Structures are given as C-alpha cells and as structure tokens.
Queue: 4 jobs
Job 1
Amino acid sequence: MTNTRKALLLACLLPAFVVAWGGILSYHTIVGVPDQDVTEYWQKSMLVLGGHVPYRDFVLEYPILSLIPMLLPHLLTLGHATSFPAYAAAFLTENILLAAALGATLAAIAIRLKSQLHNRTAIPTTVAPATEVTAQRAQSRPASTPGAGTQLPLKLGDIDAGAVISTVAKNYAIMLACTAVVAPWRFDLFVALLTALAILALARQRDGASGALLAAGVLAKLYPAVLLPAFVRVSNRRATFWVIFAIPAAAIALAAAGIAGPKQSISFLSYHALRGIQIESVAAGVVYLLHAMHVTSLGLVYNFGAYHLAFPAASMVIKLLTVALAVLFSIAVVVIARSRQVDAVDFLPRSGALLLLAFIVASKVFSVQYTIWLIPFAVFFKDKSLEKRCLMTLFALTAAEMIAYAGLIHFDVASILILNARNVAAVVCYVVLATSLRRPLA
C-alpha cells in the first residue's frame, strides 16, 4: 500500500474512530436520560414514515432537508430502527460514516489546493522565447533562495499527497475530538459534509455544482447561507453559481410551501426568532460575569430544548445582538470583497471561517456543535500560523467548556470563566482572520 493510500485511509478511519469512541462512551447516557435532540430526530422520522407531513402535521424546527439525516438511520437498518435505542445506535453509525466521508472530502480538497499552490510557484517546463532567459535565471538560483520557484519534492501529480493528507487528517481528528461527545448525536456532520463538497466543487471550477451543494446545506441547517459572500468572491462564474444555488433552493422551498402551506413551511424561522439568550453564547458569558459581580439578577429558563438566561435587560440585549450581527457580518463581507488575497489558495478557508465566526459571535446560541461548522475551513490553515493557533485554542477551550457545561446551570464561577475564555477565543479568531485578509498577498 502506497503512502498516499495509507494517508487517505487514515483521513477516513481516524475521524470515524473519534466519533465512534465519543458515541460509545456517551451512548448509555443518551439512551438512558434520554437526549432530547436525538429523541426529536427519532420522533420526527417516525412521523414522516407514518405518512405525516412536516410543518403541516408536526413542528419541524429545521429546514426541510434536515429530514435526510433523521431518516438515514431507518435506511441503514432497513426499517428496523423503530425503538429509540436502536435508532440511537443507527444514528451513531450514520455519523461515523459521515465523519469518514468528510475526511475523504477534506483530503481531496487539500490535494486540490496544494496542486494549485504548486502550479503557481513551479517553473514551466516549456517557456515562450521572450521569457526563456528569465526562466533560465530562475532555474539557476539556489533552491533555498526565496522566489526561486523550485518544485516541491512531489510524488502524486507533483504533490507529496501522503504528507498533505496526513496533515489534514491530524487537524481534522484533533478538532473533532474536541466535540467528540456531542458530534455523534447531532446532524452537523451532514451539513459540514455538504459544505466541504461545495468547497471541493468550487476548487475544481464546477461552480454550478458548488452552488447546488451549498443550497442543499442551507436547506438542511440554514447556516451555510452566511458563506455566500466568500463562495461568490472566489467563483469564476458567479452568474452560474448564483443561478444553480437559487434553482434547487427555490424549487424545494416552493415544494414544501405547496405541500404544507406557505406559512407553515417557514415556521422554523419563527422558532429560532423566539429563542432567548442560550447559556453558552458570547452575550450569556458577559451576563454571567455581571451576575457574579452582583450587577444584575439572573435566572434560567428551559425551553426550545436548551437553557436560556432570564434577566431584566434580556430583550434589549437580543436587539443589540441583532445590531452586532449586522455590523460583524458587514465588516466580514467588506474585508472579503476588498481583499487582495483572492488568488491565494487558502482565501476561501479563511474567508469562510471569518463569516461563520461573525455569525457565531453575535448569535443568541453558541452550542458546542457550532465549532463543527468551522472544520471544513480550519483544517487548511497553515501550520504555526497565528490563525491556526487561534482556531486550535478555540477548539481546545470548547472541549473544556463542554465539560464545564453543567456548572453553568449552577452558576459555578470556574465554569463561567471557562465559558468566557472560549468566547473570547472566538472573538480573537474573528479579529485575527479579518486582519489577515486585509494584508496584501505576499
């Protein structure tokens, strides 16, 4: 077996093992309590299999394509996942497979990005007469001279594919391990896979396919919509991207509206609009600190499947978060639009992560699984770069916050400090990425 195949196998099996490990450790807790999210997935899937229409006959708090990962466990078990324990086991199996598929997709993206970098730095073997002297001078420089344009030690298509894939696999596994107890029990890996496939399609200059895949992600969990400015900026055929993005999105949305009714088919939007400030959000961290300093009274309410803060200025803070989201997102869009780094191979990973962080930092919710959204972008950051170090710190603090979550319910000071450290890391990541995209392309 070649090094490339070994690395590809590692990219698939290592994250699959991480998800399996996290799922097995938490399976009895998920089934015994039972976990509310997985229970809802099971109940919604059973209703659909029973002939009920989503939005019309039962509440579905996600877009219509979210039903795909909810129904897949029944397909994997050939319809035998009727009991909750069986469904939970099948749902875990689904996420193990999705983790492996995402690993393979990230490996393919890494090879594509690396080949683009090599093609831009390598000296052509055939040069035009007018540039022949220049090329000969470049080839005569020492290999260590900056700008010499010497080719990298390559194996597959002039690329050390094994090393490239191994690096991505390591990054992916570490980031996934930081959410290992949550990732097996949510369908964020499904949406992350769609996002990664959209990135791969765009890297291969298949803008239409990229638009369709990103639209599918939006119709599964909305958040990929914030990535549009980055994808459009990179796309060589923006009109094609927009058209192919819009057609499936509009067609599926209209189909849902025709079946369930216009108002019912977008009821999930009002569901999220009615939510309060979830206890893990950036705003919640600040309010926790103010409560610890006896500046404000604070209580907790449990609704919408999570704990939210109850305090006198809650409605005003929610309005301020809306303004903050508009400001942070606008800054990110302007930075991306004016960036001179659009030709850099890591422009899309950095700009995509920036847009996601703008949404996460100003959101009313910042659950652990939100960091999974960053994985299709963060794994491609350069080793030892400031951006990479900041993102890895964010993932590490997310793991710590996941452990400290129970303490937030009891207003534990140590848990509050850990939460704020994680949230500060997210803000720092946003600032670092915005700053890096403003620099001229080296």
Note: DSSP finds 18 helices and two strands in the chain.
Job 2
Amino acid sequence: MRLRVALWHKLAWPLVAVVMAILAVPFALSMGRRGSLTGIAVAIFVALTYFVVDGTFSAMGNVNYLPRPSPHGLRISSSASLAAICC
C-alpha cells in the first residue's frame, strides 16, 4: 500500500503548483479595506492547510487506514446535495 500511496503522491505533486496558484492568487491580489497583507496571509494559510491535510492522508494511506470508497456513499452524498439545493 505504501508504494501505491507514493505513486499517487508523485503523480499528483506537479498539479499542486497549479492548484495553489489558482487558489492563492485571488487572495494575494485582494486590495480592499483589509489590505494585501491579509490576502497574502490567507493564501499562506490555505497552502499550509493543504500540506497538513496531504501529510495526514498520506500517513493514513501508508498504514492502510483509509477505507475504500463505496458507490453507495457517492449516491447518498449526491442525493443529499440535491436535496439541499432543491429545498
């Protein structure tokens, strides 16, 4: 399992720079009443949160603690989101 996690981590790593740039640029360029320093701080917070979550799930995957996704869970979550949108 450790090699599978390492493979997916290696394949996903190049996309991290693109995703971080897309997420962080609007926060860094916000020049409202809060100022640009607040936007940069939010962008750094988003990046640090990503790296903490990435490390947590990588460690959970290495010890085979992550459950397999079930198709029923996907169906339940999508129907729950449709119910939230409709009502």
Note: The first helix runs from residue 2 to 28.
Job 3
Amino acid sequence: MARDLFDEVAKDKGSACDSGLMRRDDEELNMVVAIAGDWDGMTEREAKKEQQRRSFARVKIKRRRKVFSQPIEGKKAMPSSSLCCLLLLLLISIPGLASCLADHKDDKSMRKLELLLTERSKNREWKQDERFSINAAATLAETSTSLSLPLEVEEEEEDPPTPTPPVWPEVFHASIVQFRNGTSSLVDLYYDWRRGRNANLIRKQLDGPQEVLFDLEYQNRTSFYFTKSNPERGCKKVDFPVGILTPDWLAGARYLGRKNINGFECRGWAKGQGKPETEDFVHYWARASDDLPVRWTFHVGEPMEMNVYGFVVGEEMAEEEWQAPGWCF
C-alpha cells in the first residue's frame, strides 16, 4: 500500500515537473515515507492512531497537489475583484454594454458573468475577494443603469419640402469681395430700404482709398457713378427700369438645395433669366443655420460673383456720403 502511494506521488511529481508547474522536491516524499511505516508490533490502539496520522498526511498531499495545479510564478491569475473593477470601468466607458447587461440581467449571459466573477474565488487564498466578487456580481445589473451614459447623437435638421427664401433686413452693411471680368474688388454695400437708397463703394485691387468708385442707387430708378477724388473723370448717370431691390426680392425663387460654399453649409435659390438665356439671372447662397448671405452671383454675360465677408444689421453710411457731387447734375 505504501509503495503504491509512493509510486503515485512520484508519478504526479514528474508530470508537474514536465508541465512547468510549481513543486516542492522532498516534502511529499517525506510524507509518503511517514505513511509507509511498519505496522508490525503495533497494538490496536496504536494502529488506529497511526491510521489517523496517515490519513492526515494524505490530506496534506492532496492540498499540495492542488497548489501544484496553480499557474507558474510570475503568471498569477487576475483576482475576481480586479476583473469586476475592469468590467465596471468598461461599463462607464461603453454605455451600450451597461444597457445590454441591464436588459438581460435575468438570462443565461448574466449567470455566466456571475460564474466568471466567482470562479477564482473558490480557492481559499482568494476568500476575501470572493465576498467582493459575489456582491459585485449581484449588484452589477442594478447599478448598470445608473452607470449608463446615453449617447447624444446630433441629427442634422432636414429642410422642409420648399424652404422659404431669406428676407433682407431693412438696413445693413455688407463687406464683399467681388470677382468680375478677371479682376477683384472690395465692395462696401450699404442697403437702406427705409429711405429708398442703396450704395456700393467699389475699390479695385491695389487702388488707394481715394480711388473708390461710388455707385449710388435710388428708389426713383436713378443711379450715379463717380469718383469723389477725381472730378475730371466726370459722373455717369444711369436710369434703370427698376429701383433698388426689395427686402423680399427672392420671393418665388427656385430652390437649388444644399451646397458647401466657402466652407459653409448653404441653401441656394435661383431667380430670373440671365445672359445667356440658359442661365438664371442670380444664384443666391445663404448659410443654412441663420440665412446670412455667403455668396450671390449675377449672370449678365460675364458672371459677377459677390462673396460676403461681413454682414452688420443696422449699420448705416454717413449721411453726407449719400449726396452726389454737383458735377453729376
């Protein structure tokens, strides 16, 4: 009997060595030798005591075999408490996972989670972690809802079937860069619907402030073009068939849809017949979020593109600037 036990332990020790598991070289063999004592010459009472001693030695051997089955040094398994903390952190970072666990806390997946959290706690050395793991697993579903942070998805506002075209304020000042006939100019547009007038102060690229061309337009359909600093250039008077644009001049325009203009999400409208006849007279683009003008283009043979860089509602031009000079009359 003792020999069989000796061979069994020696065989297990060899397997443990081959597999790289932890072992203690001599302690088990010493226990086996202690078990394999001589029964001869013992009384019945001594034999019972010896049997108890040997049973206790067998228990110690089994415990040591259980220790042999643990991972090798340096590769210790993660405690259940650490696993639970990691899961809680994931729940905070991934709200969708918390919601999923909350919705399925009674199904098989939740029970598997509880088993996973408590599996390592069965070992005596993780007794304290066992209490934490069981409590954490029991309350995980209850706390997952409070940990869940719903994602707010900003949905882009859709246009109505036929958006209403923008309406200009009655008084404003717009700073514009104009492109026409291959040249660029800075334009200060002053719109004053209340007094029935409109002004474009045009300065070509690299011209000085004194070279500003004034374009004064009035509701009586008369316009004056002149340069104040150079009377010799004279003054040009033009009568137009229509007066200045009304604030709702885009009413009835055809909607063009959305388009990115100069980096802004814009909505566009087309109106009138231009030159050539296949072109619309004007394409007007306004920022979708607040209807501020971004660009409009007139198709009058050579397109004239107006890019708005500033728009101030209520700003007016000085009153003396509205008066055309005497050489215009």
Note: Residues 171-328 form a domain with the outer membrane lipoprotein receptor (LolB), chain A fold (CATH 2.50.20.30).
Job 4
Amino acid sequence: MPIETHVAHVAHTAHLTSGASPRRPSMPRAVPARLMTGLATRLATSVATRLVASTAAACLALSLPVQAETGTSSLLLVSAQQVPSDAPALKLPEGATLERLASLDSPRMLHLTDAGELLIGSRAERVYRAQLTPDGNLSAVKTLVELSGYPHSLVVRGDKLYVATTAALLVADYSPGEPLTRDDFRELIALPGGGGHNSRTLSLGPDGGLYLALGIQGNCSNQYLAGSEQGYSFSERRGGVLRLEESGDAPHWQPWASGLRNPVGLAWQPGREDEPRLLATNNGPDHWGYEQPHELVVAAREGSFHGMPWYQWVDGRWQADDCITSDSPRERDEIAAPLAEIPARSAPMGIAVVPPEHPLSADMDVVVAVHGSWGTAPSGNAAGDPASRREPRLLGLKLATPDTEARLMPVLTGLQDSSSGQRWIRPLDVLFGPDGSLYFTSDSGAAGLYRLTFD
C-alpha cells in the first residue's frame, strides 16, 4: 500500500435503509446501550456516507486517509473534505475502507476458529457467532448462547468451546454451526474473581495450551499472581497471565507472567530467532495523574515479572510506587522492560499481530485497540473536560528491539468529538482475517462489529 498524501471525497447524502430520520438527535455525552442504534444512524448521517443493508447487517462504508502522530511515523495526513462541519473526522490509511458489519450489545473479545467462525464475547451476558465467507464478509451475526458472569472472551480448541467469565473457565462440547444452551456448559476450573478489573482474556497458545490474562483489583491492590509461596490466597493471585496445566489428574493454574496491573489484550507473535512470544497490553494506574505512567505493551514470558503495583514505568525506568506498603516479591532488577509505551490514560485493549506481506506490515508489527479511558487533563480524574480525554483509536506499533526504539502510528482516528468529547466508536478488540481484513469491536458509542479492508 503506497504511503502518500491524498484527499478523500465522500458524498453529502446518506441513504438510510432502516427508515430512520436523517435528523441529528441531541445525544448525551455518555451514550447508554439503549441508544446504540440511534448513535449508529447519527454516525452514518454525520459522516455523510451511505448506510446499506446486507444479509449480514447494516454496513457503513467509508474511504478516508489516516494521520500519523507527530514524530512517530512516516505516514502523512490530510483531512477528509466535503463532509459536514460537525462530522467526526474519521481518518484511515489510503485505499482502506471501513464497514460496520453489525450492531451488537457491548461486544468484547474476538476469536476466529479453524472452521472460519467468528466468535465474540460481550458484557451483555451473551456470546455471538457469525460465519466468515470467502470474500471476508460475514453471515448474519447471531447470539450463540446466553451466559451469566461476564463472558468476556472465548476460544475453540478441538471439539471444545472455552469461555472465560470473571470467576470461572467454562467449557462445552462444540461443533461448528450447531446451537448451544447454557446447560451445555460446565465449570472446568475456578478463577480468582472479585471486583475491579473483572475481564478475563483467553488465548490459545502455539503449544495448544490455554493462557489467561487478569488484572489486580485496583491501582495498589496487594495481589500477586505468582504468590502461592508468599501466602497470597487464591483470590489474591491476580495481575498477569496464567497457563492452564492439564497434564495431571485435575487441571490447575500455573503462573506464567506476573506483575501486570490490568492486561487485556493477548497475541502470539511468531518467533524470528527464538520461540513465539506472548504479547500483552497493560493498562497503567490512575493515581499518578494524566501523563504518567504510560500504558505498556510487554512480552509476557514464562516467569517474567513486570513490577506492578510495587513499581511503575516512568521516564524510561522502573520507579517505586509508595501507594502500596507491602514489599515487592521480586527485586527491581528482575523487572522486564516493556516493548512499547502508549500515552497514559489511553486504555489499550486488544492486540493483533500484523500478518507478513500485509499492506501495514512495513510500518508496524501490531495493531492495538485503544479504548480511551475516563481520565481528563490535567489531573487525570473524571471531573474535567471530556474533550481532553485520550481519544479512542486503532494504533499501530513498531515494537522495540535491542537496536531500535518503539514507534507509534495511527491506523484509525477521529472517533472522539474534539469539542464535546463524545465518543463515536471505542475499539475493544482487533483481529486480522485470512484475507487481510482487520475486524474490530466497539463496546460503546456505535457499538458493534467493524471491518477495515485494504487495497
């Protein structure tokens, strides 16, 4: 995909097949789920593009350029023209098209099965399913099963479907295309549950193992994932990545990587000179303010320790955090350095490795779904101007190597109104399809499933 400056043009009129009025309704800054459909209509109208019906769902088609972050990328930016003055300034790579494939209730993590089924967890106590077609489109996205306990993520391994809720890993026999009910599931093994950061992200490793990310409860919670020998109870073994050990009489969790405050995204990067490595996004604490500490992408290796909550990565080094009084279970010089930093209060969620030969592969190693936190400038609390919050976006990263520094470059921007702070889309997870399409979920605003295609 050539990298050059260009100007995109979109039509002034929007064709609404749903019969909805093109009038722009007055929307609150915090958009509840029940207004999702109205916001989707508003988004389609304000961007002045076309909303078309398909057998899958309504599809929002855009073709706009992307802007690079100053000093971080060679990508050049221009704004789209011939759009209403109050339209969100959506920007994409040249030649890319954004489509809204389905309106969904609070979708979360994505999983693509070997049979080409796209499965989606949610906060809405349901799991969604759709079948990918050879051209990268989807059949209708339907509810596969309703499950309580927050089914945030899921994977299919062999003939089993595993679903991670806050307090348990569930399993059911699974066949592609076949229906499921709640009664088909059983609890395979308990998880450290509790409040605070309650998402649990599953990943299927290249070794066939099941890996799971979970965060500590708050900023300074005295919780340590690898803390069995230090006397931490099962409920307090949080903050990092677990691996399910299945070789014995009964499955049990083994610590894999510890010291992460709130890891949400997991992705396996193929090895170049060594074994594949597990990448994880980490959401930093709120109590240091708006600018520090940065959010991180780390290599979650077996036995790695990432410092939190006892240490925070600030100004390129690990600094002690005095909000916690207990001693760190490991020394400062044992803490692994991150692979990349993202501005504080960005809330990075899902992460996807860019496939080789993909149009984006020359500029970035991974794409991260940046959700945008509630923190406002300059204090970092929620009481300030909503327009000062970090904007949601899709962000490309070139990860650090022993010889090079990490670089950031945007892939999709313009998802937050610069005056009101209203968020049109909040990316949650990202996944590359076999044809190179980039699928992502948004769990609020115009919530649903989206696809970016590339010429």
Note: The CA atoms of residues 263 and 347 lie 10 Å apart.
